Amino acid sequence: AGVDVITGGNHTLQKREIYPLLQSEPRLLRPANIAARAPGRGLVTVETAGGPVSVVNVMGSVFMTAAHSPFAVIDDLVDEARRGADVVLVDIHAEATSEKIALGWHLDGRVSAVVGTHTHVQTADEQILPGGTGFMSDAGMCGDYDSVIGMEKAEPLNRFQRKLPVERMRPAEGPATVCGVAVETDDATGLARAIAPIRVGGRLSEAAVSFW
After folding, report:
1. Is 210 exposed, middle or buried (CB count within 10 Å of its CB: 0-12, 13-18, 19+)?
2. 72 vs 81: CA distance, rounded Å
C-alpha cells in the first residue's frame, strides 16, 4: 500500500502469531521499551523518495505497563537513529498527555518530530517547538468516530454504566475518518519547517494540509 513503516503500541504483543513477523520485517516496529525480551525492534531507518528517514517507537510508562521508562531508552535510540538519517520521527505511544509533552521538550532540537498515539482522539496542539522539533500530543484514530474509540457504542456504554461486561466489544464499521499529521522538514537540518493535522472523510470536520 506504499506504507514505509508501521509503529506499534501496547497491543502489539497480544497475538503470538505476529512474533515471527516482528523478527523478520524490520519496518514493523514495536515499542523499544515494551518488554525486556520482546521480539522485534523499536527503531528502523528506511530509504524514501526524499532520502533516509529513521523512525523510533517507544511507549509511555504512566498508566501503562512498560519494562522501562521511555526516558531511560530514548537518548540512545535517537543517537542511533541520527547516525542513519537527518530526519528522525519519534512515535510516543502513551496514555498520559503530560508524558508525551515532556518527551517532546526533552527531544526538542534533536529530532524532526515527536508525535503521540494511543488515545484515539486527535489533539489541537500541533506546533514547532523552539529548537525546531514538530510536536503533536496525539495524531488521532483512523476509524469510525460514530463509536467509543472505534468500538460499537452499546458494549462500552454497558460497561461504564453497569460495570459488567455482557459481550465482546466489536469494531464500529461505519464511514471511517483518516486522521494523522503531516510534517515538512528542512533538507539541511532535518528539523521541522511546518506541521499540520490531517482529517479526511467520516464524521469529523476535514483538515487539509496547505504545504503539500
Report:
1. exposed
2. 16
* Catalytic entry in 11, 93, 118, 120: 11
What is the pTM assigned to this prediction?
Answer: 0.95
What does the alpha-carbon distance between residue 8 and residue 32 come to, in Å, rounded to a whole number?
10
Each residue's pLDDT tens digit in the chain (212 positions)?
889 999 999 999 999 999 999 999 999 999 999 998 899 999 999 999 999 999 999 999 999 999 999 999 999 999 999 999 999 999 999 999 999 999 999 999 999 999 999 999 999 999 999 999 999 999 999 999 999 999 999 999 999 999 888 899 999 999 999 999 999 999 999 999 999 999 999 999 999 998 87
Answer yes or no: 93 catalytic. Answer: no
Do 23 and 40 contact (CB within 8 A), yes or no?
yes
Calculate the alpha carbon distances from 46 to 31, 85, 135 in Å. Answer: 17, 9, 21
Distance CA(144)–CA(204), nearest Å, equals 10
Reading the block at residue 97, the C-alpha cell is 498527555
Can you tell me the distance from the alpha carbon of 65 to that of 107, in angstroms, rounded to the nearest whole number?
22
